[in-house]
Amino acid sequence: MLSSAFSSLSLFLLALSPVAAVWPAPQKYSNGSSVLYLHQNIKVTYNGEFLPYTAGYAPQKLSSKEVVQAGVSRTLSAIFGSKFVPWKLHKPGSQFEPDLRKGQKWLNTLQIVQTGKDQASTFKPLAGEVDESYNLTVSDSGDVKLTAVSSIGVLRGLETFSQLFYQHSAGPFWYTPYAPVSIQDAPKFPHRGVMIDTARNFFPVPDILRTIDAMAWNKLNRLHVHVTDSQSWPLVIPSMPELAAKGAYHPSQTYSPEDVATIQQYGAERGVEVYFEIDMPGHIGVVSLSHPDLIVAYDQLPYYWWCNEPPCGAFKLNSTAVDAFVEKLFDDLLPRLAPYAAYFHTGGDELNKNDSMLDDGVRSNSSEVLQPLLQKFIDAQHARVRKAGLTPMTWEEIPLDWNITLGKDTVVQSWLGGDSVKKLTGMGLQVIDSDYNFLYLDCGRGQWINFGNGAAFDVGYPFNDWCGPTKSWRLIYSHDPTANLTPEEAKLVLGGEVAVWSETIDPVNFDSLVWPRASAAGEVLWSGRTDASGQNRSQLEAAPRLNEFRERMVLRGVGASPVQMTFCTQGSPEECNWPA
Ligand SMILES: *[C@@H]1O[C@H](CO)[C@@H](O)[C@H](O)[C@H]1NC(C)=O
Ligand SMILES: *[C@@H]1O[C@H](CO)[C@@H](O)[C@H](O)[C@H]1NC(C)=O
Ligand SMILES: *[C@@H]1O[C@H](CO)[C@@H](O)[C@H](O)[C@H]1NC(C)=O
Ligand SMILES: *[C@@H]1O[C@H](CO)[C@@H](O)[C@H](O)[C@H]1NC(C)=O
Ligand SMILES: *[C@@H]1O[C@H](CO)[C@@H](O)[C@H](O)[C@H]1NC(C)=O
Ligand SMILES: *[C@@H]1O[C@H](CO)[C@@H](O)[C@H](O)[C@H]1NC(C)=O
Ligand SMILES: *[C@@H]1O[C@H](CO)[C@@H](O)[C@H](O)[C@H]1NC(C)=O
Question: Can you tell which superkingdom this protein's organism belongs to (predicted)?
Fold first, then answer.
């Protein structure tokens, strides 16, 4: 009796004992409380070979050693450069720093061992193709050992390593107070993503690169670029220059092929696969500006009879010219994307049936007429995606609303919530969860559209958007992508993505809206909704870690929002937790 009471007490304590501050939480973690200092001359080896530390080292090519060497450079630079003195995490006036007069015990070596061999697919994996697991130990005597199967696993472990350190307020001294440390870690889901929308508002390349960095800190590994939509076409297609020339908001708001390669390569070096979406056959009205014959319902009013957001516009569904256009577009684009991505997303959300009433080749809004045309369209486009060596992705309406039969390789992105994920996995389809009730980061901030004037000034009051309230980090953290699924169904959930639709978001407010809310999704997707003992992860345990991780993100150059006021981060949990 005594021992079972004791073990349930220790389980309880285990559940509440902080996982230092590593975010996302490792699967297994233990720490001590000895202090070890990190010197800029620490000896780093990779599979026995000495690796020099050069700040700002960029890989010369996508090889295991180059990727690891650049990862080491970023890790050490993050520790030395971010100057993180954690006063915000301790009670005012408390002595939280090690006493420098006591002499320092230094870390001797950082020994990195990669036990497996990388494949070409390591840098552009399908879900499950790369092993991201790692083990990390820091011994009391100052030896660090990081083992991983792949170079991407090494990067994940290096990120964890960086989060064990602080800077001393007295100056250039970096220490971990957690030795000895022992970590075993691996992701719960293989697909952990952020979707950005560069068509409603444009995002310059540096903003996207900064986002990739922040994703890597969060162990998020997929950046989905919803690159075009009815509002703008920022993507330069050299064989069809008219698309961006007429479709971009301004010549400055474009991505050249070099920009696209830069973004994808930057991601690949960090274990973040960047894949693109050209949404079709709806959400593509902008093509009308350069190819008016291919599009119906562009700029039709009132827009809500033709689409969900002006200026509408969809491909003609029974047109050989549309087919030839997509063929030419894909022949140009897909071979350039395929070296760095396993996926290409063909969109497929919110196709409005009325649009084809304006199409001389169809003149109908009936499902019976449209469904076979759409099936033919999807079959043709997905065949082209496969021919380019990519795996097609599509939004959930294609199988669920249109009954389109998809190849078994296809990955379906679900956003409408409810029982969509269950239905899709029940049909045997692989799914990415982006349930708007939890994972749409644009929601709940009010309308982008303007309403009445004068006497009618309060038409639309209180001007809410369609998907409020805002999805707080706690709400996101509560969401289980596999809730109510059978084990068989759950296996088909590859992971999830937060979505950042950008009608009212641009680089000015992006960071503060995305971080650290995407971090909450990142932890659910990496660590799992439940912890090692099968308990739901606790906000009480997560909040102090997220507070700390937010400080690290800010110091590393990302404008993440605060999680709590400093009064709480300085450690008054009895007053900042409910019930008290
Ligand atoms: C592990 O670190 C925490 C601080 O995050 C500390 O409170 C705890 O005492 C450490 N554990 C051991 C066994 O020293
Ligand atoms: C991590 O340690 C566990 C337990 O010893 C072992 O099973 C696993 O293979 C190790 N993983 C790596 C990447 O070294
Ligand atoms: C199609 O247009 C009619 C008006 O002609 C409208 O009542 C209906 O809601 C529209 N359908 C959709 C799906 O928008
Ligand atoms: C599609 O076009 C073909 C060839 O022009 C025509 O025979 C067919 O009737 C059209 N289908 C529909 C549903 O309008
Ligand atoms: C199809 O068009 C008719 C006539 O405009 C309209 O009444 C009906 O609502 C439309 N159907 C859909 C599914 O939008
Ligand atoms: C899809 O199938 C369902 C159930 O068989 C049916 O209710 C629906 O009308 C179909 N939709 C289309 C677009 O064919
Ligand atoms: C986790 O929380 C959910 C939602 O509140 C609940 O249904 C479930 O039973 C909890 N799981 C455990 C293991 O407590």
Answer: Eukaryota
Task: Give one DSSP letter per residue of 489-502, joined into a string.
Answer: HHHTEEEEEEEE--
The DSSP letter of residue 40 is T
Ligand nearest to the CA of 303: 3
Q: How far apart are CA 291 and CA 247, in angstroms?
A: 10
Name the pTM for this structure. 0.96
* Closest atom of ligand 4 relative to the 318 alpha carbon: 1
The answer to whether the CB of 29 is under 6 A from ligand 1 is no
47, 112, 147, best to mutate for ligand 2 pocket (most atoms within 8 Å of CB):
147
Query: Looking at the predicted structure, is the pLDDT value of residue 510 above 80?
Result: yes
Query: Active-site residue among 66, 350, 503, 541?
Result: 350
Q: Is the CB of 31 under 6 A from ligand 1?
A: yes
Partners of 174 in beta bridges = 38, 167
Q: What is the pLDDT of residues 91-110, one digit of tens each?
A: 999 999 999 998 899 999 99
For the CA atoms of 235, 239, 243, 244, the dihedral, rounded to the nearest 10 degrees, stands at: 40
111 Cβ below 6 A of ligand 5: no
The correct CATH number of 191-527 out of 3.40.630.30, 3.20.20.80, 3.40.50.300, 3.40.1390.10 is 3.20.20.80
| Residue 364 CB less than 6 A away from ligand 5 | no
Q: How confident is the model at residue 155 (pLDDT cuts 50, 70, 90)?
A: very high
Q: Grade residue 573 by pLDDT with cuts at 50, 70 and 90.
A: low
Query: Average pLDDT for residues 489-495, to the nearest whole number?
Result: 98
Specify the residue with its C-alpha closest to ligand 3, atom 5.
305
CA distances from residue 340 to 69, 90, 263, 569 in whole angstroms, order as listed: 20, 43, 10, 40
User: Can you give the pLDDT at residue 532?
Assistant: 82
Q: Where in the chain is the domain with CATH 3.20.20.80?
A: 191-527
Q: Which atom of ligand 6 is nearest to the CA of 402?
A: 13
Structure tokens at 268: 């690949």
Q: Does the CB atom of residue 536 touch ligand 7 within 6 A?
A: yes
Using pLDDT thresholds of 50, 70 and 90, give the confidence band for residue 206: very high
Instruction: Report the C-alpha gap between 482 and 473 in whole angstroms.
Output: 18
- Give the whole-number percent of the chain exceeding pLDDT 90: 94
For CATH 3.30.379.10, the residue range(s) in the chain are 21-187
CATH class of domain segment(s) 21-187: alpha beta
For residue 410, report the distance from its CA to the centre of ligand 4, in Å.
Answer: 28
State how far the Cα of 58 lies from the Cα of 54, in Å rounded to an integer: 9
Taking 50 as the threshold, does the pLDDT of residue 13 lie above it?
no
